[in-house]
Each structure stands twice: as structure tokens, then as C-alpha cells.
Amino acid sequence: xxxxxxxxxxxxxxxxxxxxxxxxxxxxxxxxxxxxxxxxxxxxxxxxxxxxxxxxxxxxxxxxxxxxxxxxxxxxxxxxxxxxxxxxxxxxxxxxxxxxxxxxxxxxxxxxxxxxxxxxxxxxxxxxxxxxxxxxxxxxxxxxxxxxxxxxxxxxxxxxxxxxxxxxxxxxxxxxxxxxxxxxxxxxxxxxxxxxxxxxxxxxxxxxxxxxxxxxxxxxxxxxxxxxxxxxxxxxxxxxxxxxxxxxxxxxxxxxxxxxxxxxxxxxxxxxxxxxxxxxxxxxxxxxxxxxxxxxxxxxxxxxxxxxxxxxxxxxxxxxxxxxxxxxxxxxxxxxxxxxxxxxxx
Length: 346
What we know:
This protein is mostly beta strands. Helices cover 0% and strands 41% of the residues. The chain contains no helices and 21 strands. Strands 1, 18, 19, 20 and 21 form a 5-stranded antiparallel sheet that branches. It has a 4-stranded antiparallel sheet with strand order 2-3-4-5, with no helix packed on it. The chain has a 4-stranded antiparallel sheet with strand order 6-7-8-9, with no helix packed on it. A hairpin with a 5-residue loop joins strand 16 and strand 17.
């Protein structure tokens, strides 16, 4: 299913405001004129996380990337509120675009993690935009303040006989289960097993119900595998999902494919083999390869922008004796099967 992947990152931290930052692809879209691709990416500043930002780049050939001046001399689309948090940092998770939205000033929707006000806890927040450049956060508290800042959102496909009735949107969140028998490892969550839960709502700012566990490792998974993130996307029928698998023993992370008819019951595809595994020793993606944005179709190809790092989750190099390599954002190309029928489930 995977056709090709980048040997080197196509988008790297090369602007003064990105200095010492790590990039992560947040969303990708084909521009309205179909002549270019727009990629949103997060810049995380480890030493100054209160200044984390969302940036945007464009390309008409996927090789040469422009980081346009969006009015202040930078390509920064949005910045966080800058407040201290007890958990997480400003992090854009999902950007949705509905060209036929009733309100043109809300054709774009973003799910992100932040602490919008001093008297509110951090949580999942919503912002809207008319052009995908100028964003307006929704007033009020975050929609979800359940602790864990790894999440994603998708518009729900109308279906029948779903738990808790119809929904307009689903949010998927990493949640935890206590397990004292987990293997001894380097993980930062001792005794806590990561899994995926769902929230549902009838509108963006309506009542969100959850979390309900829908996907977690089982006896057919290695004991140290945990599910870090689920990135959903629409397929010809139902949903697909990039499932980020966190290997707590060596702290690496790769991507499996899952599919679902209704967004609640998920099947493991490809016999649980990685859809996108680690790059070869010494490459930019040899420690972590993650997909946290939906695929797009560009010039007849199914592609997705992935984040690659030579370091692992705890920040250490996966191959300490290899020459240092700059992390960044790469491109993975897939067969049409990614958005259509899949092989047998496992």
C-alpha cells in the first residue's frame, strides 16, 4: 500500500522564528485552483513552549516550498494564548474545510489544545476561519478538558444505530488505563496504558459526550505497544485511521492502518504490520514516523504528510552512533487502496 516515502524532509525549520523548533504536520489541502498544496504545521519550541505556533507552507511541485508572508513578515497562522498549563502546550490537531458551509466566515474549523483564559483549565478548543489564514477562537471554555492533549476530530458520517444516537462530529482522544503489570520501560507514564476513546457532539459548541474507549491493544499486540493517537479520515465507504503505535521499551513510534464503518468499531488492517514504519538507520525518520493529518489526492496520487524524527519519544537518539540528522516533514505516497477497500482485518 505504501508506494514511496521521503528520503529527506521536504519542510524543515529554516526560518528565524522556527529556530530550535520541531515541526509536525497538522493538515494538508489542495488549493481551490488545484495548482498547489497547502500544508499547516506546528512549530514546538522545547525551551519556550508558550511561544509554540501554527505555520503554513505552499508548493506546486511538492519539492520547493514557499513560506509566505501572511502580513507580519512570517508565515505564522496562529499562536497560542501563551499561558502556563498543567498539561500540554498549544497544539493544533485537526483542520477541517467545508467549502459549502452556510457561514463563509466559518468554512474552516480547527481543533487545538490551549488554555484560552487564566481562569480556565487547558483543553480542546475550537477556532473558525473564512480563509484558513485569519482564525477566530470560539469564546468560552474549552469544549473538553479531560486530561490528555493527543486528539483529533472528524465530521461524522450519518449512520443508524450508533451508540448515543446521531452525531455531527467525533473527537478521538488518547486516554489511559492503569495497569501495574506493564513492562518496565523508559516511558513517562508509569503504569498507565494509552488507548483511544471517542467523544461525540451534535454541533461544534454543543454538549460533548465521552470519553468512551473504542480501541486498545489486546493479547495479539506486543506487551509494550500502546495506542498514542488516532487520525481519522473519510474513505469511499466509512472511515480510515492512522493509528500511532507507541513502543514503550525503545520509545519509537510508527503507524498502523485501521478502518471502520461507523467511527466506533475499528478493524486492524494489514495484519497489524506498520503502514508507515521507521526509516532506515541514520535517516530523519529513524526514531519516530507519525501521521497526524488526513491524506489528500494530489495530481492523481494519494499522499500524506508525515513527521519524522531521528530521536524517540523521550528525546534520545534512536541510533546514538549515527550522524546527526535534521528532523522535519516528509511525504508518503500510497496506492488508491488507502481510500478504498482494504485487505483482511486482524
